[in-house]
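Folds abound. A case:
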Amino acid sequence: MREVAIFEIGQTPVAEHWDKSLLELAGEPILQIFEKTGLTTVDAIFVGNMLCGSANRQLHLGAYVADWVGARAAGAVHVEAACGSGGAAFRAALMAVASGDVETAIAVGVEKMTDSPSAEISSELAGASDADFEREMGVSFVALNAMVMRRYMQAYGYAKEDFAGFSINAHANGVNNPNARFRYPITKESYAKSPMAADPINVLDASAMGDGAAAVLLVPLERIAGPGNAIKVVGSGSATDTIAIHDRRDPLWLKAAELSAAQAYRQSGLSPREIDLFEMHDAFTIIAALSLEACGFAERGKGVRLADPELISPRGKLPLATMGGLKARGHLVGATGLYQLVEAIQQLRGECGANQVDGARIAMAQNIGGSGSNVYTHILRR
């Protein structure tokens, strides 16, 4: 297998893009890459998206996007893995280049959620849960995570307020990200007063929807003459678990996150102690805690102890959600995994301004689909 590098990136701001279609959003970061590199096409395009068929009434996204950006001869496919679609698209592009099958590949994640009413989107998102035993019972994703959070609090003796630091840190970092949806800070007081969504999860525990797209260009490392802006992919892992939470041996352990991270660590020869920053999948504060434990950054039941803004800020010991994460940047479902990777690359290039992690050389991004049913972990190195 060949060594692979990320040569260029593109992204749109996360917002309610009423003036842009799904197709226009998907094309924008790809065309940014073409403009930066001088390319007019690539060998392959992998489009990560979850909701196109239901929210946008459009399938066949591979050819749809390739045609729009002028890459009609490219091999192009739509990749769907619920909230992990972006990470899955990146891994597919990575394997295509690493295997020698293609020389240039773009992974793009896109979601256009404002085309449908929020109630419909919530119902469509529930399609990532078990249709027979979760969705049909009327359980939303917020409710599923609320049950896990309640059990975690009871099992380990935490109060709801102990989770606040994850959201406070994310919003503080989102202030300095021009592409983030929420660019304002929050406090412990505003967190405590936030309206309840599904007890114990309140609005500030949960990430928000939106529209946007992000993309990366992958090439063989050997094709890059000098270091330039190239970032090497040194670890990649994927794993699955049961879709239904009640089918898991331990609902308080993200087994797929553990296995996916272990693969990436093994490939890279690195350990959690050597990671300079972690772009975690903080769709809910409870998922932040569980993923930190599964990835080896905290012991079982102690992930919440890392919810200290000073510890996890860009200048802390373990920088998390350095550009706002899912909480402040926004959770665009099929695009989230690519936004995480783009932001990790910006950190390794030293392009994050006030949010820059000093001396960052190794970054990890983990994209979680469903309630932990499929997980994609990647480690990047400058």
Remarks:
- The domain at 1-382 is CATH 3.40.47.10 (Peroxisomal Thiolase; Chain A, domain 1).
- The radius of gyration is 19 Å.
- The mean pLDDT is 95.
- Residues 22-37 form the longest helix (16 residues).
